[in-house]
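User: Could you go from structure to sequence for me? I need the amino acid at each position, not a summary. Structure tokens:
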């Protein structure tokens, strides 16, 4: 009893002494907020490949981008208006370190798109321990500015001075053609203008390589033509030690809607019918293969996950943050 009393007394005395030191009315110092986020990169091991997702920025889709059967579009637009978080998306590029080469798949928007919200990829690449000068190859899925803007500065400098850019010939021929641009609708003009400013510094340096067919660019990497979103829209599938990662470009823009309704297209699709057909072919294949990690530039960061069949559509299981150096699928470990 005495002990408890004396402890309480001691506590009261301490508070009284403290108030003498700091003054009776002093408020405790408020902790200032920091506002700064963790660096935007996330690493994943796929076989012997080190894949690093590089955040370029957060994006918000517009429900009016959707096209498709009216009944489905109406339901989707209503749901999106009721829950604007469903419109959240990301812009992400991916760095693949094969041990021999450093390969970037898509380069983010740089200063060409997104009004200053995007364009963080190069900074996050540095945060991840690499420099733009170390990049050997850039594989681009297509020439929209949110995928290639990060290649070139507005004053025409190559951001990846030692890299050769690889793009499908059909894609390069389409967006770099002044004749096609002249006939294109007004809405599409900015896409032609950005492509025609971003590509020339690489073309002049003889570092713009176009491919057609199924040539080998990198050992263990397969080209996957995904026409529709753009004429030469291409995916890249890397295999290593029995594991695979598929970079699917703009197969999905709004994951909250298009996974359940793959028939819905977006206004940016050059050929909406082909885009929906490509999606309808690709998604069942990927959902049936547990050994494939998908890298989707507009899936929520880190834009890496796996696809599963769910009802008449699909669900997405994002990779879960871990600071262990894990295999892409523990069940497949040998
Ligand atoms: Zn895109």
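Assistant: Here is the amino acid at each position, in order:
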């Amino acid at each position: 009893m005495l002990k408890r009393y004396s402890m309480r007394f001691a506590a009261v005395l301490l508070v009284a002494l403290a108030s003498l030191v700091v003054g009776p009315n002093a408020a405790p110092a408020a902790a200032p907020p920091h506002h700064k986020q963790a660096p935007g990169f996330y690493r994943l091991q796929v076989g012997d490949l080190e894949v690093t997702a590089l955040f370029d920025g957060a994006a918000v889709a517009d429900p009016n981008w959707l096209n498709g059967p009216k009944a489905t579009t109406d339901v989707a637009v209503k749901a999106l208006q009721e829950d604007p978080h469903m419109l959240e998306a990301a812009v992400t590029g991916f760095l693949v370190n094969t041990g021999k080469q450093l390969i970037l798949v898509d380069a983010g928007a740089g200063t060409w798109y997104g009004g200053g919200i995007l364009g963080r990829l190069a900074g996050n690449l540095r945060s991840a321990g690499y420099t733009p000068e170390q990049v050997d190859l850039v594989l681009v899925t297509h020439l929209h500015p949110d995928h290639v803007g990060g290649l070139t500065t507005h004053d025409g400098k190559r951001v990846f001075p030692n890299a050769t850019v690889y793009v499908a010939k059909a894609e390069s021929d389409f967006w770099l053609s002044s004749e096609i641009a002249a006939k294109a609708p007004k809405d599409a003009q900015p896409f032609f203008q950005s492509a025609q400013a971003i590509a020339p510094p690489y073309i002049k340096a003889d570092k713009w390589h176009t491919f057609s067919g199924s040539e080998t660019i990198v050992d263990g990497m397969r080209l996957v033509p995904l026409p529709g979103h753009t004429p030469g829209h291409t995916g890249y599938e890397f295999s290593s030690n029995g594991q695979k990662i598929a970079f699917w470009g703009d197969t999905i823009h709004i994951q909250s809607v298009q996974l359940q309704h793959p028939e819905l297209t977006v206004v940016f699709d050059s050929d909406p019918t082909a885009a929906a057909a490509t999606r309808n072919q690709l998604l069942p294949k990927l959902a049936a293969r547990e050994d494939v990690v998908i890298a989707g530039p507009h899936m929520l960061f880190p834009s890496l996950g796996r696809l599963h069949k769910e009802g008449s559509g699909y669900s997405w299981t994002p990779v879960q943050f871990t600071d262990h150096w894990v295999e892409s699928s523990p069940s497949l470990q040998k």
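One structural detail worth keeping in mind: DSSP finds ten helices and 15 strands in the chain.
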